[in-house]
Design a protein that fits this description.
Elements: E1 5-8, H1 14-25, E2 29-34, H2 41-44, E3 49-53, H3 59-73, E4 77-80, H4 94-126, E5 130-135, H5 139-142, H6 149-169, E6 174-181, H7 187-196, H8 198-203, H9 213-224, E7 235-238
Helix pairs in contact: 1-9, 3-4, 4-6
Bound molecules: NADP nicotinamide-adenine-dinucleotide phosphate.
NADP nicotinamide-adenine-dinucleotide phosphate binds next to α1, β2 and α7.
Length: 245
């Protein structure tokens, strides 16, 4: 399909921006979201790109901006990419611990679930094919340090959610995939690089370089093409060989 419509969350920076660019290069129409950043001029000037600002941690905001986008414009592909990586260690007080868990679950998992629900219901109603791509993390498979336990749990939730969609909706032409990146050189990873140093990060890797976001985007764009329906429910790992399944 040369005129596919794509909705990608978190398209202002990092992996989401590369996914949006990759989809535009295919000639597809892209709606991208951000919470507060502006979109780059190269995106704003592209007639096939629409930028939307929405806080995925605020249900009312999501309902006002993205529910009509999904129900009226119905994208062919929904890419749940936006995410946060917030820390709270076991010594944090209970309120702080729960604040981080609630924020992480709301933004990373709960918002993806409601967008997916609207997307599936509309496709089933119309009898059309839809693809969901959930950007999870290697943390879903190997856990993370205790400070980022909420993050790992939110990503494991995404993987399980993807499998549930595949089991129940493949017969209705709704396909869902998880992508589990390892360490990717974006703003999200910058703090860890600054704190621990590149050598520490690369100790885990089978490469001498940190994975770049455009490689993740290449995989996502391939999945969005819809050529491997029977891989629905699977996770695609891209982690520089930091673990191999
Ligand atoms: P990033 O560079 O930090 O970009 C995050 C994107 O999400 C931005 O577009 C940001 O918008 C948006 N966002 C953040 N909070 C939001 C909220 N409350 N509501 C709406 N949008 C929000 O992140 P990234 O590294 O590209 O990560 C993208 C995805 O890949 C995430 O789900 C992440 O967990 C996953 N991942 C990343 C890595 C890695 O090493 N980088 C590894 C595994 C998985 P603003 O620009 O407006 O803030």
């Amino acid at each position: 399909m040369s005129n596919k419509k794509i909705l990608v969350t978190g398209a202002s920076r990092g992996i989401g921006l590369e996914i949006a660019k990759g989809c535009l290069e295919k000639g597809w129409s892209v709606t991208g979201t951000a919470v507060s950043s502006s979109f780059p001029d190269s995106m704003n000037s592209n007639k096939n790109f629409k930028g939307v600002h929405v806080d995925l941690g605020q249900l009312v905001d999501v309902q006002a901006t993205l529910k009509p986008e999904i129900e009226n414009e119905l994208p062919d592909v929904l890419i749940n990419n936006a995410g946060v990586f917030r820390d709270a260690d076991m010594m944090a007080d209970d309120d702080e611990w729960l604040r981080v868990w609630d924020q992480t679950m709301n933004i990373n998992l709960r918002s993806s679930s409601i967008l997916t629900k609207w997307f599936i219901n509309q496709h089933v109603k119309n009898g059309t094919e839809g693809i969901i791509i959930n950007i999870a993390s290697r943390a879903a498979y190997r856990g993370d340090t205790q400070e980022y336990a909420a993050y790992a749990a939110s990503k494991a939730g995404m993987v399980a959610f993807t499998k549930s969609i595949a089991r129940d909706f493949s017969r209705k032409n709704i396909f869902a995939y998880s992508v589990a990146p390892g360490f990717i050189e974006t703003d999200m990873a910058k703090d860890a690089v600054d704190l621990l140093g590149k050598d520490y990060i690369l100790k885990d890797s089978a490469f001498d370089e940190i994975t770049q976001p455009d490689e993740v985007a290449t995989l996502v764009v391939f999945l969005a093409e819809g050529k491997i329906r029977h891989a629905s429910g699977q996770t695609f790992h891209i982690n520089g060989g930091s673990y191999l399944l």
